[in-house]
Amino acid sequence: GVPAIVVFLNKADQVDDEELLELVELEIQETLTTYEYPGDEIPIITGSALLALESLTQENIDNSDKWVQKIYQLMDTVDEYIPLPKRDTEKPFLMAIENVVSITGRGTVATGRVERGMIEVGQTVELVGLKTTRETIITGLEMFQKTLEKSVAGDNVGILLRGIQKDEIQRGMVLAKPASIKPHRHFQAQVYILKKEEGGRHTSFFAGYRPQFYVRTTDVTGNIKTFKSDDNTEIKMVMPGDRIQME
């Protein structure tokens, strides 16, 4: 879930009664407490986004306007109350590719969120998954139209790749530090088949069933060859609620 929240109570300019605003704040606190948040501790800032925007878009911008100050107060509160997420920068670089674009005169750009580690312009990475693994060099990094020299875990970034054509890369592949990960096409797993009441299946299935696997940003169709029970006895049919080993 969401670990920390700051509440902005909008349209405060349309309420003249301060007691009514206090009543609404109490209701917000009760609602937050109902959902197991510390309702008495979560900051609640009242203001008017519309009047703040109008004040800043006039010819004479007035930063001292009380509604503008409410927005500044909101952002200061966000900085103080919401902790910075811990970035997983110690592990080898890994980014799942979400989209691929071709920029005329520059090359192919892969976009996505850096899952772990950090990367710098000029470093070598591997393009892994779905096709033959190959190496490439990062020639540019960009985030929100801003050029970067390096990117760290948590960044949504566009990575310009040297010598990679658009048809050689696709969503679902990953960029990773060379030799840090290895793709696999065959594996064994122990799974529990959800019942209908748990949001799962309501019919049985057999060997040869082709489920859809969702891994990071890709989804691929697999093929289940065999089923085994917990005691390694091979079984022919699987029912919802069963715990099995499959290959």
Number of helices: 3
- Report the CATH topology name of the largest domain: Elongation Factor Tu (Ef-tu), domain 3
Q: Note poorly predicted spans.
A: none
The CATH superfamily of the largest domain turns out to be Translation factors
Query: Roughly how much helix do the residues carry, as a percent range?
Result: 10-25%
Q: What gyration radius follows from the Cα positions, in whole Å?
A: 26 Å
The CATH architecture of the largest domain comes to Beta Barrel
Biggest sheet descriptor: 6 strands, antiparallel, barrel
Main location: plastid
GO molecular function: GTP binding; GTPase activity; translation elongation factor activity
Family: Belongs to the TRAFAC class translation factor GTPase superfamily. Classic translation factor GTPase family. EF-Tu/EF-1A subfamily.
InterPro entries: EF-Tu_GTPase (IPR050055), EFTu-like_2 (IPR004161), EFTU_2 (IPR033720), P-loop_NTPase (IPR027417), T_Tr_GTP-bd_dom (IPR000795), Transl_B-barrel_sf (IPR009000), Transl_elong_EF1A/Init_IF2_C (IPR009001), Transl_elong_EFTu/EF1A_C (IPR004160)
